[in-house]
Amino acid sequence: MRIKKKIRAIVGLTIIFIPFFCFALNIREEIKERKIPTYLIENNSYISLKSLLKILGAEDSWGRVEDRIFIKHQDIEIKFKINSTQVFLDKKVEYLGVPVKEVEGEILIPVDDFDRILSGVSVASSVSKEPSSKEETIVTKNKSFIILIDPGHGGSDVGATGYYGLKEKDVNLDIAKRMREYLEKELKGNTSVKIYMTREEDVYVSLPERVQMAKDIRADVFFSIHTNSSLSRSPDANGFETYYPGVKEDLAFLPSSPPSEVLDEEVKGDTSLLNILNDLNTTSAVDESRILADFVQERLAERLLTPDRGTRRRGFYVLRYTPMPAILTEIGFLCNPNVELNLRDAEVRQAIAEALAKGLLDYLKFRNVI
Ligand SMILES: [Zn+2]
User: Fold this and answer.
1) End-to-end CA distance of the chain
2) Pair (167, 251) in one structural domain
3) How far apart are the CA of 179 and the centre of ligand 1, in A?
4) Quick one: average pLDDT of 199-227?
5) How far does residue 162's CA lie from ligand 1's centre (Å)?
6) CA 160–ligand 1 middle distance (angstroms)
7) Which listed residue, of 95, 112, 220, 290, carries a Cα 20 to 30 Å from 324's Cα?
8) Bridge-partner residues for 26, per DSSP?
C-alpha cells in the first residue's frame, strides 16, 4: 500500500491534472482509510450499502427492486439480494459465507465476503475522500429468528378425509399447535426465536396468502404440515415424507393458487419474467430447505413405525414462492384406516408434533440460531 499512499500524495498535489486513479479494490483497506463505520452481527463485520457504494464510487449508478440490489461499477454489473448469499458479477456467481442483511432499514454488506469477491475489481479512487470524524463499531441487536408454522388447508378446504371421517385440516392444525407449544417450552427464555402460524383456527387461508404472510413477517423458516392421501385413496398407502423445493421463484404478483396442494407442481409463472429473476434466486434457500427436511424426516423416523418415504423435491406452491427455506411434511396417509385411527389418538399427534419440533430444533442448532 506504500505505492498507493505515494500516488495519493501526488494526486493531492496535482489535483487538477490527475483527478482520478484506478486501484485494485481492497474493501478492508478502504474501510480503514475512510474510517467507515462497521457493524458487528454474530461476529461478522458488515458495512452499510451506502458505504459500499461510496467505496465503489457508484452512488449514482445503482438501483433497488424489492429485495434486489443492482450496482453498475465501471463495466461490471454487481447484483445481489437481501437475505441471499449469492452475488453476481456480470454472469459469474459468487457465494457469500453469510447473507446480505437488512436491519432497521439499513442494508448491510458482509465485509470479508465482499472483500474477497471484489478483490479482482478495480475501484475509482479520487482525492475527494472525506473521512468521517469518528470511528465507531456499532453492535446491532440480532434480528429475531422467525418460524412460520403452516397447518395445511382449513375452513372450506378440508384436505384429505379418512374412511371414518377424520379431516386433514383438523389433524394439521392440532399437530401445528402442539408443535408450537413444544417449541415454546423448549425455547423458553430464548427471546430471539419467534413462532407464528398461518392460521390458528379452522379458517380458509389461500396459498398466496400463506406465502404473502411469510414474506410480510420475514420468516426465516416456513414449515408446512400436511396429512397425505394417495390419489386412488388406497387403504394400503403408508408412510411419511418431507418435501423441499426444487426451485424458488420470486414474483411481485403471486399466481393464483390451485385449490389443493396436490396440483401445485403444475403452477407456472410468466417464464420471461422468471428468467430475469431466476439468476438472483436463492439456491441457498433451496439447499437450506433440504437440510431442514433431512433433520425433520430423521426425527419422524425415530418416532413413527410407518415407512420412511424420505425427503423429496417438489414444487408445492408454498415451497416454490416463499423466499426462505421451506418444507412441507406429510405425516401419514389419512386414506389408510389404520393410520386414521392412530391419528385420532392425541398421544400419537403429540409424538408427531414433538418429532417435527425436534427436527426444527436440530436445524436451529445446526445453524447456531440456538
Ligand atoms: Zn394437504
Assistant:
1) 42
2) yes
3) 17
4) 95
5) 12
6) 6
7) 112
8) none
